[in-house]
Design a protein that fits this description.
This protein has 195 residues and is of the alpha/beta class. The protein has five helices and nine strands, in the order H-E-H-E-E-E-H-E-E-E-H-E-E-H. Strands 1-5-6-2-4 form a five-stranded mixed beta sheet, with helices on both faces. The protein has a two-stranded antiparallel ribbon with strand order 3-7. It is globular, with a radius of gyration of 15 Å.
Length: 195
């Protein structure tokens, strides 16, 4: 499904699916493709989504300084050029949350499509917290606050993101509506995988 990605990432995707379970895979129509390409500098082809399960069983969400008021979401982070999915997952989890985790399950893999052409991917993993102190390690992440939610709360978060208006984010270089649509799809498929 991810043959369009680099051969190394495609091979790793298959290996991770074998080790952590077959994820839900789906294509997501992305009429905002050009905005996403601008926001990632056209270089980033994919990201990891960190579904961090705390010892209480709740999931960790976060908001950033520049997000619309009240918007919390599952953390995500980019896969850098030449970086593996697993390395990006563990690096981004630590940078954004300060936590050490154990990879438990490969939940979902989304292909975002520009027409028929895939151009960006999200790989979501369930991670169990095993240590560390909650708090963003990298100030460049601009994390403002964390909130814990139940799995059953994910559709409501998705609905909030889907309802974002046409305001423009200079930080993301895209309309909030377009960003919300992309994030909504990811939260819905994670909820589907976890319920």
């Amino acid at each position: 499904m991810f043959e369009w990605f680099t051969p190394a990432i495609d091979a790793e995707y298959r290996e991770l699916a074998g080790r952590y379970g077959e994820p839900i895979t789906m294509g997501v129509a992305a009429p905002y493709a050009s905005a996403t390409r601008r926001a990632t500098g056209g270089e980033r082809q994919g990201e990891v989504c960190m579904v961090v399960r705390r010892p209480t069983g709740t999931l960790l969400t976060m908001t950033k300084h520049f997000y619309p008021t009240g918007i919390f979401r599952l953390p995500t982070g980019g896969i850098e050029a030449g970086e593996s999915i697993l390395a990006a997952l563990l690096r981004e989890t630590y940078e954004e949350t300060g936590l050490t985790v154990q990879v438990t399950r490969f939940l979902a893999a989304l292909n975002y499509l520009d027409g028929e052409t895939p151009f960006f991917a999200s790989f979501a993993f369930l991670l169990d917290e095993v240590g560390g102190t909650l708090g963003a390690v990298d100030p460049a992440e601009q994390v403002l606050a964390f909130r814990e939610v139940r799995v059953a709360d994910l559709p409501a978060l998705a609905d909030q993101m889907a309802a974002l208006g046409d305001g423009y984010s200079t930080d993301l270089a895209m309309r909030w509506h377009d960003w919300g649509q992309q994030r909504m799809a990811l939260h819905r498929v994670v909820w589907q995988a976890l319920r």
